[in-house]
Write a structure and sequence with these properties.
The complex is a heterodimer of chains A (about 230) and B (about 260). Chain A has helices at about 5-40, 40-75, 75-105, 120-145, 145-175, 180-215. Chain A is mainly alpha-helical. Chain A contains six helices and no strands. By secondary structure, chain B is of the alpha/beta class. Chain B has helices at about 45-50, 85-90, 105-115, 120-130, 135-140, 150-165, 180-195, 205-215, 240-245, 250-255, and strands at about 5-15, 20-30, 35-40, 65-70, 75, 90-95, 170-175, 200-205, 215-225, 230-240. In chain B, helix 3 crosses helix 4 and helix 3 (about 105-115) runs parallel beside helix 6 (about 150-165). The longest helix of chain B is centred in the middle third of the chain and has 14 residues, at about 150-165. Chain B is globular and about 55 Å long. Chain B starts with 5 loop residues before the first strand and ends in a 5-residue tail after the last helix. The relative contact order of chain B is 0.19. Classes of the chains: A mainly alpha (about 230), B alpha/beta (about 260). Chains A and B meet through helix 1 and helix 2 of A and helix 7, helix 8 and helix 9 of B.
Chain lengths: ~230, ~260
């Protein structure tokens, strides 16, 4: 109907902006979670846990917006694919928020100046940067409707998976007799797992980009989880 | 949803024709700068209620209105109220476009002239045609007969005619049922633009149209429970359109909007 659907097009665009804005929020939350971990800042970690409610709130807003749009505007074709993809996108960003919370919750459990392992610390930092970059790229791929950027995410995700396995092996290696070090290493395995899942969520958002553009659903990459 | 100023307050509103009850006990508030849609199966009384809002039922000798309608707090049916003034403030657009057999200009200028409105008639006509999103299509042929226009243009002309007398409310009785989807889309876009300035109440058989454009939706049914073949229209549920179409409170609304009955 072209001209007759101007307001509908505005509505759908606003909904996408809301969802993409949620991804920006979640990148900010990830930054805070990584900083809290790096600085052993329990206060900042508590803020991350509290701020996740805002992400959940955004999820509910977009979810309701999608239902309303489906019920009221009966979108079809490309519009329908976009609305369906937005529903997935917000679910993934809500899960990324949950993973940030999982990381933040580890911070107060690590105790005061625990024994650490430089290699694991370095790997966790690298994973954090990688996860952040993947979420940013997922956002960009969706906003630009760029399937190439989305496909590239699955290649990048191999890096994060690889680092996750390295941390797991390293945690076993350094076990030894030091119970405190073992406990710390186990915590880092959980953090590593959370970051690896964030990478997966970014790839999943990329899959939604491909779906919006092509109408086909493709599982990007084969072994994304350990 | 946040409520704006109340335009109409319907309280226990009912209408009977020749002693036969058509619709009963309608209580609702209609808000300013919103599009309010009345939906429901044939005979549910939605058009009858719409016609009460600008006293069109006065023109039906056997019609009797019970209950009350307050318009901006004033009793619409009080003895001192002038029905002609009411219809100027509360305009109506009908199912089938009904332009006068006159030029486009004269169609729009008719109301202002009859009412003796002051001001430059060309300005009044242009403003009304612009607000009805018709100006660009007709500005070069204002003197031609309105019957030469397409159906969709004729309906927008009827809207312009209604706007020319500077109303407060526009009532629309299935304004798109005689139009194709392109013209329907134009009218729907126009309605969304017009609600910034006016309050709109629309009766529609097209549920999707109510869903697409209205802010609030009232769902009416035909009640057969009084027996003896009596069919009485009743208001079942009135709420934000989003609520009616995603999570209605009454199972009868759910059945209707999902297409299981009616």
């Amino acid at each position: 109907m072209g001209e007759g659907r101007v307001h509908f097009q505005q509505e759908i665009q606003q909904l996408e902006e809301q969802a993409l804005g949620g991804l920006d929020m979640v990148v900010g939350l990830l930054d805070e979670a990584l900083e809290a971990l790096d600085q052993a800042d329990a206060e900042l970690a508590a803020i991350v846990v509290a701020d996740d409610d805002r992400i959940d709130g955004r999820y509910l807003e977009v979810h309701q917006g999608v239902l309303s749009l489906l019920a009221r505007q009966a979108p079809v074709a490309g519009d329908l694919r976009l609305v369906a993809a937005l529903l997935h996108l917000v679910k993934h960003l809500e899960r990324i928020g949950d993973q940030c919370t999982n990381i933040a919750k580890m911070v107060p459990l690590l105790g005061h100046e625990p024994p650490t392992d430089e290699k694991i610390v370095e790997r966790i930092r690298a994973m954090g940067a990688q996860a952040r970059s993947q979420v940013r790229q997922a956002r960009q791929s969706f906003a630009l409707r760029d399937p190439e950027l989305a496909l590239d995410l699955s290649r990048q995700d191999d890096t994060i998976d690889c680092m996750n396995r390295e941390i797991f092996r390293r945690a076993i290696e350094i076990g030894g007799a030091d119970a405190d070090l073992r406990e710390w290493a186990m915590s880092m395995v959980l953090v590593s797992r959370a970051l690896e899942r964030i990478g997966d969520n970014a790839v999943d958002i990329g899959e939604q980009t491909v779906f919006v553009v092509t109408g086909l659903f493709r599982e990007l990459g084969e072994e994304r989880t350990v | 949803m946040p409520a704006t100023e109340v335009v109409f307050e319907l309280d226990g509103l009912g209408v009977s024709y020749g002693g036969k009850q058509a619709v009963q006990d309608v209580t609702a508030q209609i808000f300013r700068n919103e599009i309010t849609a009345f939906i429901g199966p044939s005979g549910c009384g939605k058009s009858t209620i719409l016609r009460c809002l600008n006293r069109m039922n006065d023109l039906v000798p056997s019609a009797r209105v019970e209950g009350s309608i307050r318009y901006h707090g004033q009793d619409l049916y009080a003895a001192k109220v002038d029905a002609v003034e009411v219809r100027k403030r509360i305009g109506m657009v009908f199912q089938k476009p009904n332009p006068f057999p006159k030029s486009i200009f004269d169609n729009v200028a008719f109301g202002p002239k009859v009412l003796g409105m002051q001001g430059d008639m060309h300005e009044i006509v242009e403003r009304a045609l612009r607000r009805a999103a018709l100006w660009d299509e007709v500005k070069d042929r204002l003197k031609t007969n309105a019957f030469g226009m397409s159906g969709g243009q004729q309906q927008r002309l009827c809207i312009a005619r209604c706007l020319a007398v500077d109303p407060d409310v526009i009532l629309m009785d299935e304004p798109c049922s005689a139009l194709d989807p392109v013209s329907t889309g134009k009218i729907e876009t126009l309605m969304i633009e017009l609600k910034e300035r006016y309050s709109i109440v629309i009766v529609t058989h097209n549920m999707q149209q109510a869903a697409r454009i209205s802010d609030r939706t009232a769902f009416f049914i035909v009640d057969l429970s009084s027996g003896e073949g009596q069919r009485i229209g009743r208001l079942v549920e009135y709420d934000a359109t989003e609520k009616i179409f995603t999570n209605p409170a009454d199972s009868r609304t759910e059945d209707y909007v999902t297409g299981q009955v009616g």
